Amino acid sequence: MAHRELLTRHRSVMPKWLALYYDQPIEFASASGRWVTDREGRTYLDFFAGILTNAIGYDVAEISDAVRSQIDTGVLHSSTLYLIQSQVELAEKIAELSGIPDAKVFFTNSGTEANETALMLATQHRRSEQVLALRNSYHGRAFATVGITGIRGWSASALSPVKVSWVHGGYRYRSPFRDLSDADYVRACVADLREIIETTTAGDVACMIVEPIQGVGGFATPPDGLFGEFKKVLDEYGILLVSDEVQTGWGRTGEHFWGIQAHGVVPDAITFAKGLGNGLAIGGVIARADLMDCLGANSISTFGGNPLATTGALASLNYLLEHDLQANAADLGARLLDGLRAVAQAHPVVGDVRGKGLMIALELVGPDGAPHPAAAAALLEESRERGLLVGKGGLYGDVIRLAPPMTLTRAEADEALEILTQSIEAVAKKVQQR
């Protein structure tokens, strides 16, 4: 079926607010490694990986074989009312990797659901509906997670079950503190946090939730150590720290397994999803036992941690660890960052190059430095025309996001860099002509 025909059918039955990439949207028909082929036969190097979800890549034998073995048992589902060996084994491994003392794990089906669960635990444990969140943040599309999302374009409703106070710190590029040194930036953000607690809350706040690198917000990357300094203030008030690792987890940032580790702190809870399942729907919360066990009512997750998802996720996690994909992310991420920063120096339309590991962003700007979402949209299209799929985001829709599978090779990284260089040059010419 041609893309045009499928697009017509899509628009007739799917919600208008369900976003699609590209002027002419595409469907994936097959994939292998880091490459996808669309329904009309064109092949692309995938540098967005299903929004950071296909972390290991496509058609990985070790993962596919594990999933097939579970399918062959005939048991695709049993619910959490029954014991599930793969669920327990996966939880044991994740708890150990978390660094959280006495950790327990609860599985969900998505990052949104994981963050909803973390909010429920924190508000119940602290007996407070007050939450601190970062400006420019994104935590999901459900009722409470929309309420703690600090990007207007992704906040569908002003209604919320929690009361939120907004803190500076995550998005440095357009922050009022942007021209400060790292140390002074951290001090200014810590002072802001303290003032927010003392002036906009009753003091008994349930938690603060942070993304170590803001995903939808355009891979905004604060200075290392910021959240460690935040934690010192939070501890004075007994406020819990939740690290949203839906996009930064599993070694993607290269230097650490969890993004929050760059800040020298162990959070009270970690939420995860995306890359763990390598395409299978799975998410979850890791928390210390007293926090995880604080609910006084019965609860289950019908599909969370089901046998198929946990079998595939366990195979994905084992593959990631055995092949040291964290080191690969560090190596190739540094290579890409160096190359892109050199390109940015030659083309001012790229105002900022940031990120860590295989989580890299380009913020596009106009001649006056203002956000340039049209340039970002043009770069998305130019890259696709040359055979590279990238992502888009940012508060103003002016950021290109790069997050390929962590099995990326050096040759593929160099090919992507060449395509991006050509695409940026083409966009720069268009901006100049206007």
TrEMBL record:
Key words of the record: Aminotransferase, Pyridoxal phosphate, Transferase
MF annotations from Gene Ontology: transaminase activity
Gene3D superfamilies cross-referenced by the UniProt entry: Aspartate Aminotransferase, domain 1 (3.90.1150.10), Type I PLP-dependent aspartate aminotransferase-like (Major domain) (3.40.640.10)
Alphabetized InterPro entries for the sequence: Aminotrans_3, PyrdxlP-dep_Trfase, PyrdxlP-dep_Trfase_major, PyrdxlP-dep_Trfase_small
EC code: 2.6.1.44
CDD domains, alphabetized: OAT_like (cd00610)
Cofactor dependence: pyridoxal 5'-phosphate
Superkingdom, natural source: Bacteria
EC class name: transferase
Family: Belongs to the class-III pyridoxal-phosphate-dependent aminotransferase family.
PANTHER family named among the record's database cross-references: ALANINE--GLYOXYLATE AMINOTRANSFERASE 2, MITOCHONDRIAL, PTHR45688
Subunit organization: Homotetramer.
Protein name, UniProt field: alanine--glyoxylate transaminase
Organism this protein belongs to: Micromonospora fulviviridis
Lineage of the species this protein comes from: Bacteria, Bacillati, Actinomycetota, Actinomycetes, Micromonosporales
